Amino acid sequence: MSNNNATSVPEAYPMNGGDGTYSYTKNSSYQKAAANVAKTLIDEAIAEKLDIEDFSSASSSAFRIADLGCSVGPNTFACVQNIIEAVKQKYGSQMPDFHVFFNDHAANDFNTLFASLPPERHYFAAGVPGSFHGRLFPEASLHFAHSSYATHWLSKLPEEVTNKNSPAWNKGKIYYTTSPDQVFNAFAAQFRTDMAIFLEARAKELAAGGMMVLIMQTIPDGIHQSRIPSGIMFDFLGSILMEIAKEGLISEEEVDSFNIPVYTTTPNEMAELVERNGSFSIVKMESTSPWLKVGHIVNNTEQRLARELRAGMEGVFKTHFGSDIVDQVFDRLNDKSGQLINQLESSHRQGTQLFLALKRK
Amino acid sequence: MSNNNATSVPEAYPMNGGDGTYSYTKNSSYQKAAANVAKTLIDEAIAEKLDIEDFSSASSSAFRIADLGCSVGPNTFACVQNIIEAVKQKYGSQMPDFHVFFNDHAANDFNTLFASLPPERHYFAAGVPGSFHGRLFPEASLHFAHSSYATHWLSKLPEEVTNKNSPAWNKGKIYYTTSPDQVFNAFAAQFRTDMAIFLEARAKELAAGGMMVLIMQTIPDGIHQSRIPSGIMFDFLGSILMEIAKEGLISEEEVDSFNIPVYTTTPNEMAELVERNGSFSIVKMESTSPWLKVGHIVNNTEQRLARELRAGMEGVFKTHFGSDIVDQVFDRLNDKSGQLINQLESSHRQGTQLFLALKRK
What we know:
The structure is a homodimer of 361-residue chains. In chain A, 41% of the residues lie in helices and 16% in strands. Chain A is an alpha/beta fold. Chain A has one domain: 3-Layer(aba) Sandwich (Rossmann fold). Chain A has a 7-stranded mixed sheet with strand order 3-2-1-4-5-7-6, sandwiched between helices. In chain A, helix 2 links the parallel strand 1 and strand 2. Chain A starts with 28 loop residues before the first helix and ends with a strand. The N terminus of chain A is likely disordered. The interface between A and B is large, with 39 and 39 residues. Chains A, B: It comes from Prunus yedoensis var. nudiflora. Chains A, B: One of its GO terms (molecular function) is methyltransferase activity.
């Protein structure tokens, strides 16, 4: 039943598990800053737009919350806690029990997630393994879905990009930042397919009146991908890989065939995809700027940046290049991170995060 | 919220994780035989006694099933599949989506469990970390709870047994089989406390009309603990430990202070505990005899028996004695398993499993 709406099996690139030096648990301060920026907006959306009366027809035994793409914590716990507090703030003692579902790929380190669940939590917890590019929950069973920094990951690389004879073959690059239009178009088409599947699945799973909050990378209208932090970072990693290829440790073709399966949407594009799906109304939509508040940029702590990028991206690199090359890439990134931070400081950091609150019609 | 009904933090002795030589995944054929014996009884209980009309007041979005103490598979998947088929057999297309919750201690290897979920399953799956000696689910949210070979594990060792100055100090033994009454009484009291907490939690979690099936070790009236397979096996392991102590590799006091936190109830005792709880009616209660169908006894495959015992019991031994001694214990068990099998073949193997189907009033 999982993934039965997807056209192919989604690929899994979980964040680094465990709690070691390069773990996501210890290296997700950017995602934390992003969540903090979103906190006030979530509070407002719940206070102004959540209507528990809408659920009365369902006469449910619990208020069910899902965090989609939860990784291994700790950000997911803070986020869920915030949602519960905002709901309680509004409805007080009328609330039934809270049931929280932590979702990520089956390859995610759920053992670490479960071991770090807050012992004093005031909700019942469950883990849900599987891709959110497909069904995960029974029909009309959820009341609140949340996803932070997960839906910009594509379910898979677009096929054209992996075909050497296609005009979308991304020679010498690992991202579409400065690639021919065909490459960008292939990424955009994959994202639109993925998001259509995502919205269709959530439309089935959310009860009428239920709310969904998506927090994801975005790019402001009129700004080029090469000027925003994600484009700069991915190109920087690409140049390190090409450097390693020129030294003969890997082949250039290995770099050509490697692409980061991430897409940065625009607010307009997301609004259009939501409208096309037809099951949700947009309750709140706002571009925010967490990059202006991230410690490792503001305070120029170079090692931290390299570690954070590694915690989030290592999985994709390892699958394609193997562990030895991953060490090379991130060691070199670490050595050069002053240079990367300089580039990030002069990048366009306003409005690179989209906050989108939707309500199931 | 987890364990908030328990008087202390329950101890966790998960079955061996992963899928290696000593994994529970590869070494749980006894539990499989036990589940097979129970299959027909579950089918009958569902066909005769499950009344989906009872749930209509809950107007639920899903039919929710929990397997309590699921371990890492594969038995739990077969069991859940069987329950779903029996429910579908009875109600056909009227059924809403099935939502299945796999529960075990947070220390259980959920990563292995999730990786082995049947890809073609016709239900939505979730993992629930935490002790069933406490609340795990929202009020009245479950329709079917199942637990096989889990509820005979105590939440912790009774305190008296761990106190050298108590008359329940179990000198020279690791189980109560041939111990003074005080030792047996301490185990029995702990079980009765645990089962009271277990039934109270499930009474809150099961919707009215919901069904619970418990499959657990039992001992027929009038048969002594030393004559049934579990008593024989635990005593055998105890004698190996005393042998190791006599050789000086561990102290005798280490053996004295070690006890297997398992209790074998009688059908009468369980019936009394259910009645005392008051929230359930007994739909079906039957003693069955899976030991008469277990391959490694019937076919005398000695290595298999040692491996299976290790997969289930290693966790308890390791916590107390450390890995080196665990290897010693199970290597010696392997060498002597012909002897153990002889004892098992002449043991009392009828009626050592209790099948109990309860209905939430």
